[in-house]
Specification:
The complex is a heterodimer of chains A (121) and B (763). Chain A is of the alpha/beta class and 121 residues long. Chain A contains 5 helices and 5 strands, in the order E-H-E-H-E-H-E-H-E-H. In chain A, strands 2-1-3-4-5 form a 5-stranded parallel beta sheet, with helices on both faces. Chain A is globular and about 30 Å long. By secondary structure, chain B is an alpha+beta fold. Chain B has 24 helices and 29 strands. Chain B has a 6-stranded antiparallel beta sheet. The chains are: A alpha/beta (121), B alpha+beta (763). At the A-B interface, helix 1 and helix 5 of A face helix 19 and helix 20 of B.
Amino acid sequence: MARILVIDDDILVRMAIKAVLERAGHEVILASDGQAGMREYGSHAVDLVVTDMLMPEQDGIKTILALRKTNPFIKILAISGGARINSQDFLPVAEKLGANASLRKPFGPDDLVAQVTALCR
Amino acid sequence: MSPTQPALDEANDALEAVARHVRDLAAAAPGWCWEIGPDLRVTYAGDQLKMATGLSPDNIVGRPLRGLLAGAVDREAMKLYFDLLHEHRPFRDIVIPYRRGDGRKGHFRVSGVPVMADDGSFLGHRGFAADITAEAEAGALAERSEALLREAIESLAEGFALFDSNERLVLCNSRYRDMVGLVKESLVPGISMEGLLQLAAQRRQFQFESAEAWISDRLRRFRDSTSPSEERTHDRRYVRFADYPTACGGRICLRTDVTDIRLAEQRLRDAIDSLSNGFVLWDSMDRLVMCNERFRDIYRFLGKAEDLTGRQFSELMRPLIDDDLVEMENGESVQHWFAGRLNPNQAPAAQPFLLHFKDGRYIEVCEHRTTEGGRVSICSDVTDRKRTEAALTESEHKFKGFLTASPDAMIVVNEIGDIILASDRAVALFGYSREELVGKPVGMLLPERYQTGHKALMDRYFANPKARNVYTGTDLYGRCKDGTEFPAEISLGPTRTSDGLVTLVAVRDVSVRKHADAMMRRAQKMEALGTLAGGIAHDLNNMLVPILTFTKLTAESLPETGSEQGYLSVVVEAANRAKELVEQILIYSRSETTERRPIDLAWVVGEALKILRAGIPRTISLQADIASEPLPILGNRTQIHQLVMNLCSNAADAIGGKTGKIAVILRAERGIDGRASETAPYGCARLSTIDDGIGIDEATIERIFDPFFTTKPVGEGSGLGLAIVQSIVAGHGGTISVESCVGAGTRFDLLFPLLKDPIETTG
């Protein structure tokens, strides 16, 4: 069982991910943007961070960089539903910047559980 | 006392001797002796009468003289003769004309003395007569000849005078007198030439500077009979002197008044001198007869001082070639021209020709034959004209250069709208030859539907010709020879010229710009769409996460066999389709912004076809005809894959379940559609897909590239396949075109500009 921090600005996405991961036996902490995520990360010992890429206040790229600065070994799973502007695909960038894996939205519960399991192994 | 016999005999002998003497003399005389009695009957006639007249003396003795002379023709002479005889007077050399036996006129010459008896009584006449017919005829002839000669001399138009060997005047005619008017009265036979000259000098009959010199010169000419000379008289007439020797040492002097000739010559000379052109006359021997000052101005090397009369062309003009002064404007060699000019048989050039002097002058020479076989040559200095012409040619050249250089098609039309000039660009744009354009109404370059309106527009323009752009409220179109039309912008520029009002019409083919505008609008649309798609994709993807997640979780919490499982699987299916759609939208919106590298299009297309083959129904044959040589383009492999997939899967869909064929052809081409293009300096690659499917109708074909337009049932196609293809082609700097025939199939042609550089084909 792992303690997983989920950062996403979409509450429906956060709820879905929480439901799936808790059902798989993990403990889930939620945050609605990068800054909130970093605060949660600072106050809990977390095994894995699942972060969206495009968010208000602090986006996924900054969050990954900040996490890596704090802890080079923390496991990070980047998720993204694509960019609002320029249709840019952030996921390859996220992996280059330090995300251990990435998952493209929309994904089903099985994909997410498989990825998280692989990362927490 | 009676005379003694001896004395008598002696006297008889002496008498007999006298008689014989007389007889001998009579016999030797050229006529005959005669005697007539007081009754005028012939008493004696000498034997010579018969010789001279054929009459025998015996036949006339005893006959009356008047009867014998009945044939005499001159009554006057006869009267004189008989009066003398009647008056018993002596007479001498009376000539009596008479009619001879042969009818011709004859003459006697008769001399006689009266014979008196010792007692003083009259016994008759005795005398001598001769037939002088021949002598009289010769005399008359001589007289007539002299009269004729005098008449002839008198009738001469020239003055004529004959001087004997002592230089004394024998005779002269009145014309001669007229010409020496002031010494006329001295022209009496016997006056010496020297005397006449002194008199003439004294009275200033002729014009001279020194009398003595003039007299000695004239005398010398008179004596030496040198060539003719000319003198001017006190009354300014010109007299030509020509003196000739006669056979007997005398002199004949001929004086001709050449004033009229000289005045005519002078008038001719004045006329020639007043010409602004150079003039020269050469005689049939090519000797200079006369030339004017202008001629000497033009041919400067001739100088001004020397008299050129009589000089040969070949000698005078030789400096032209010897000193290399001139060249022929027509490119002929000067030597060749000169040699031809010296040939007397060669006719003068029919056309004027130009001599280009090395000092820069251009001389136009025009030659004509004269009636006597000489040549007249008129030379004009046309340097200014040549310079103007050159300047004109240059400005015309520039003008044409401007016309040609203009990116617009330039057409010049006259006042009635006929084309008078068309630039190369105009010829190329409209596809007509220049000959087909010039002289035709400019309306021929417009589509027929504009013809009527054009007339009115043209009238309005000519009523107030100002530079303007033609604006009709709608798009303007030009019409090419082959009937095709192109959108055009037309501007008019009027110019007043010597030929009237001409208008420069600039026609700009704006189809490229229109196309570029369309491309620009499309790019903007794509950008907007990209933004929109990005936003939708992001939010939709987010929304799909809870849908998929909670549907799955709900399904897991429900009995596996319940009908709820079926409902939930539809939700998942719908969510998956939404996911796919979003993917397509993202591909589409990213299609023009992806990174491109040099790739070998042939290799990439070949690879794509390999993968494609597996996904196409077996009823469809896929025929690939791919260029064997590399076709380097700047591109994105993934996108080219996508493009080939989309085109071929569309083609397969068009064929449907039937058997059919898809051909994929890839070839290199020069330029774009055979025309050189700046965007494809190394030519392009043409990728064609041809299917024999159901085809696309006209209404549909206009929309096939529109995003989300699809003819497929809902759920089977996103409507983005061809939009993505077009977007990728555009992103590659290429073009796409489609041809289709309902029921026969569809053909797509894609052109990609080629790179010259060797390609980098990554495996």
